[in-house]
Records
---
Amino acid sequence: MATIFDINLFALFGQLLVGLINGSFYALLALGLAIIFGLLKIINFSQGALYMLGAFAAWIGLNYLGISYWWALVLVPLAVGAFGILMERTLIRPIANEDHLYSLLLTFGIALILQGLFSHGFGSSGLSYPMPEALRGGTRLSFMYLPNYRAWIIVFSLLVCAGTWFMIEKTRLGAYLRAGTENPQLMQAFGINVPLLVTLTYGFGVGLAGLAGVLAAPVYTVSPDMGANILIVVFAIVVIGGMGSIGGAILTGLAMGIVEGLTKYFYPEASNTVIFLVMVLVLMVKPVGLFGKEA
Amino acid sequence: MYNKKLNLVLLGLALVAPFVLYPVFLMKVLCFALFACAFNLLLGFAGLLSFGHAVFLGTGAYVTGYVMTTYGLTPELGILAGVAMSALVGLVYGKLAVRREGIYFAMVTLALAQLAFFFYLQTPFTGGEDGLQGIPRGNLFGLIDLTDNMTMYYFVLAVFIGGFLTIYRTIHSPFGQVMKAIRENEPRAISLGYKVNQYKLMAFVISATLAGLAGSTKALVFQLASLTDVHWFMSGEVVLMTLLGGMGTIWGPVLGAASIISMQNLLASGPLANYIHVVMGVVFVICVLAFRKGLVGELQKVLRKNSG
């Protein structure tokens, strides 16, 4: 086994890989939060619950409706997105003009409801979702063993992140979105249907959480509290990166996953707190966040 | 005049209450009422939504529980230790959190609270998943035995009144006025020369200290300090109590805490026992959508309409 300076490379790369996978999920969730925050100026506290909903939807689809993983990958984000759109239209829209803290509390309440329903319906112990046939097994590289599904998570979520970034920064639709972030009233005056844009943005941001849920189902256990735990970490990541830039949210998510992976190798006791400690450090040095703009 | 009478009536009710209702239930309500009042000082009067207030409740509970069990201190010293530690954590966390505003403030406090949660989970003195059990209540000032629930109740009532009056005085002091000014219009407060962040920090520390007092007292009442006290769910619960009762009102958090605790007690034995989180979520949604002023706030609106 290859060792340099007493470092077990095999184990180190293993933890780096796990870190990169966690980072992919952080990136997807942080991206969704940032997109929603950009236009709606609200923090979606139910993002974690919707990620959980995505994982459960995939599980239910497979076990009761015979929907395969690949179909779930397409259908579940759409379903979760549609659920989000319903939420936006019926619950969030009526209080859009109130203090934004209320929408935070509202989405927190929705998260409690979803989490409570699923833990009653499916128990809190967690369910397992089988790996899709085509992605079983792995590749033996010179320095590590790379399970195919894990590689797939990283590649696919990076593609989704990159695609979203491209759409927002380089296309006409993205230009509308960015303009809406700057000045929604003026956009409306130019004849663009801002309320529709808001709804679709919310649906898209939430759909990303659903997508992350499907991707996560085969590697993590599908459990009702999977969303709450990851969401708090993602909040810390959002504070670290600042929500000013889409690219920043993605990069911070990935970077923090890697930091977590490295910590798991060098000092495992701190692995579940290291991201919060980084947040503390950032708050002390650059309170607006690494990619944040001075308000 | 009107308020004075009301306060006397409430005090009278509180004094006879343990003869009618279970003292343990009442003590639980008082502890959470103090916790919610402390939280409300920050949210209702300084406009800062902390989503991690469970840290201070839990820190108070753990430290008091630990020193009482290990060193056999008297309860007042045990509580003092818990409160002092909560104040210290409040100072450190407050310094970090006031660097961000609004939604970020909520996220920072939540993340910091999670940091503390993992610390308490891993550090040996808290007993991990089991928590600290069988914390002795001890003799108050070395004289009064608190083992009896009735005696304990009056002690808890005294603690609550002390905490409540502190909050009342804080709100009605010049400091409290500046706090409200910052809530209403921060740039103007800055332009008037107030060091806004220091005021926020002070409010945060007072709030954390009193939340710690609630936690310390609660640890003695239940003779237990556990991870439930520092979990994010507890932070959410205190937000709900304050929201339901009426944020920014004096009595709202008390009423909110009493309602939520009663509701949990009722649900625990009924068919909805497994749906407590769902019910609480629903109450959250209803509060936000239908009555943002909370029970006391809406009541005040009705009273004002009738008198004017």
Note: Chain B touches chain A at residues 49, 96, 99-100, 102-104, 106-108, 110-112, 114-115, 118-119, 122, 232, 236, 239, 243, 274-285, 287-289, 292 (CB under 8 Å).
---
Amino acid sequence: MPGPRTTAAGLGLVEAQQVTLFTSQQPLALARGGRLDSVQVRYETYGRLSPQRDNAVFICHALTGDAHAAGQQAGADKPGWWDNLIGPGRPLDTDRFFVVCPNILGGCQGTTGPGSLNPATGRVFGLDFPILDMADFVSVHRRLCQQLGLSRLLAVIGGSLGGMQVLEWALSHPSDLANACVIAASSRLSAQNIAFSAVAREAIMRDPGFHQGQYSQYGDSPDQGLSIARMMAHITYLSEEALALKFDREPERDGLNHGFGVDFAVESYLHHQGEVFLDRFDALSYLYLSRVMDYFDPFSRPQATAAIAAARPNLLVCSFTSDWRFGPEHSRRVVGHLERAGLPVTYRELDSKYGHDSFLLPIPRYHDTLRAFLDRALEVGQ
Amino acid sequence: MSQAVPTGPLRRDLALISSLIRPGSRVLDLGCGDGGLLRHLMSRRGCAGSGVEIDPDAVLSAIRAGVPVIELDIDQDLVLFADQSYDAVVLSRTLQAVHRPREVLLEMARIAPRVIVSMPNFAYWRNRLRLLAGNAPVSKDLPHSWYDSPNVHFGSLDDLERLFDELGLTVIRCLPLTASGRRSPWPDRTRNWVAGAALYELTAVAGG
């Protein structure tokens, strides 16, 4: 994999913050009906907001991401998930940009989700948590911006599910943002995408530890199901070539044992991925967040591009050649819709052999693209 | 590392193209390079538009300069653009390097009512001399050696005009150019001999 290409040190120690954005006096009305009487959001910020408040860049994270995008949390051995992009001198240069990254609604990393306590019942929401929509993520993001005094964002950026939030935001409230970057995302999951998601959810819900979503009451959790879901999803995040480069058919130990144990290195790797995922992710959040992606189809709405065509933000869409989850055909569809609406859209089809996860990697041409787009954004202003 | 924003005067051939485009038009520039023509049209002539480019470094320069650019293959991917979604579509000195010039021209006519095309003239008299002397032409308009040329079609202006005719494209204007990219001083009818290249404004719409 491409190594770090940054010369400057990273952000150093960062701290998450917690804020209550919706209460029973001001509940969050959800797009598909229902409401939430209490929404807490965890977020991190990096860099300094300019006195003109015109250098704010909002990060939307992917399915299993969190608010900790960059820098080092006390006691952690790894930096944030997008640390190669965000920091002093990096493409999202925190000496010049003010960066905000929250955990999304329905998540399990500090923001209210199906694993939170339901104030109405005093027990965990579980499957009583309302079904979410991409628009709900955007509602909460917008309220956070309001709370932070950001009336207009210089840019909103996200990859995968993050890119889908960016697209939803740009289509529904285009005057909130001057620039939008939609990376390795989709405006319409294919039957194959939905099929993979369905199997992941089945693995979770059929686990005896699931208990109709009330597993925490039983002191249980659907660990088998969640780790299998993660193992399978992980395969779709990497290309065949990336797996071959990393493992080929290497045996896990000295030789192959011809049994049903973990014998190939790739199997051991998947087991590890499934295992470590249990420590940081909740099965209910996996169900709720993955389902939002299945239903997302914003260009099917009547007048889908009317608002954005009037506001005309600058758009950057990127895909990666070896991505077989949301490959170039997904991004081209997005570009086609935006192009036909007469919008200033830039599209890059970036060469990479690392599959869907390329959007998290410091691939030089990809980072140069974001840097050029953001430098231009800052130069022109909002 | 920040890309330097390209500055300096507009290339002579691009200035001529610019003169054919009405202020305020929506322009699609196929093979837009670093976006020089579009930047000029956007900043000086009140135009809007997009470019298509396949060279990754040129795409990066265009992005840094604020020109919307779509990284696609002109030969295969113009289907992305809607019918008559632009006022003018430009293809400058690239037709000889695409694989299917006929299909590309038809796609251009589908995308915009005005089609602006320039192409080097393989039958320019100096090229004819080079061929008579037994060598592939190398000139200002055809600067590459035969083995590293991006050009895959070697047509004359005469050939090109026959193709326009066959495709139902009407020539509104033809500007024969000298080898240094100036408007040729010679009579237009001699262009297949004396012009190093030519710039055409075309329309597929009856009555122009």
Note: Chain A has two domains: 17-188+295-380, 193-291.
